[in-house]
Amino acid sequence: MLQDKLDLGALIGGSLADLAMKIVAALLILVVGLWLVKMIVKLVKKGKKFQKLAPEVQTFAASAVKVLGYVLVILMAVATVGVPTASILAVLGSCGLAVGLAMQGSLSNLAGGIMLLIFRPFHVGDYISDGAHEGTVKEITLFYTTIATADNLQVTLPNGALANSAIKNLNANKTRRLDIDLTLSPAADKEKVCELLLDCAKKNELVLDDPAPEALVTVTEGGLPSFKLRTWFKSGDYWTVYFGLNEAVQKALTENQLPLAHQQVDLHTDK
Mind listing the pLDDT tens digit for each residue in 52-86? Predict the structure, then answer.
């Protein structure tokens, strides 16, 4: 009887020692593995081919490598303890289905992020608008896109909604067009007004000569003469041209005693 108890105690002790060794090994795998994943991500980021990728692709790829690495390390650690890998995958599959149903929005954002990187409707540094928000793209991650508004506010947009919305990219084309519409009194000299408008455009160094500025005359529903100044410029010069040209037009009309009845500015983004 005593011998049986000693054998049972030795068996339990051996099992506990074996389990303790497995736990220690699993912890080592976690510590070393997570450290290796971080080092691998750093090495990937420093690679020449990686540096040639677009900024948004770099962020997405780095995040994907990190997540995949963490998952593999955790699976290795759990398997070391003695849990069968097949059982782990089965549990993960079941949990994945439940989590997927509960996180449809997040999965939609992930799919949206992949679509944005495939079709690339915009890049980091572009000024975009989705109808509700607009600003300069700062970062594109797996789930969200971060933009900075004109007044330097940070806005985080879900990739799912962004991929399914109409995105206006104001930097997609090298040039943009600015239309300034003016309505003056019936007594206004149409030829003189057109000359003044073209003169304002030609004096602005940022306005392009090709396509050349245009001054057009139309008539409003009320019978008043309507004038349109159409100019082209580089996309990055928009605000400078917008304020400079509007100021020059207002000054020219005032100096020539041409009262402004109405003014409207339209922005066009392609030739």
Answer: 777 767 777 777 788 888 888 887 887 777 766 66
**What is the model's pTM?**
0.57
Residue 12 lies in a domain: no
- Answer for the pair 107, 96: CB distance below 8 angstroms, yes or no: no
Question: Mean pLDDT throughout 95-111?
Answer: 62
DSSP the chain: -HHHHHHHHHHHHHHHHHHHHHHHHHHHHHHHHHHHHHHHHHHHHHSHHHHTS-HHHHHHHHHHHHHHHHHHHHHHHHHHHT--HHHHHHHHHHHHHHHHHHTHHHHHHHHHHHHHHHH-S--TT-EEE-SS-EEEEEEE-SSEEEEE-TT--EEEEEHHHHHTS--EETTSSSEEEEEEEEEE-TTS-HHHHHHHHHHHHHH-TTB-SSSPPEEEEEE-TTS-EEEEEEEEEEGGGHHHHHHHHHHHHHHHHHHTT--EEEEEEEEE---
What's the pLDDT at 196?
Answer: 92
**pLDDT tens, residue by residue, 166-189:** 899 988 888 999 999 888 877 778
Note whether 142 and 66 are same-domain residues. Answer: no
Domain assignment of residue 164, yes or no: yes
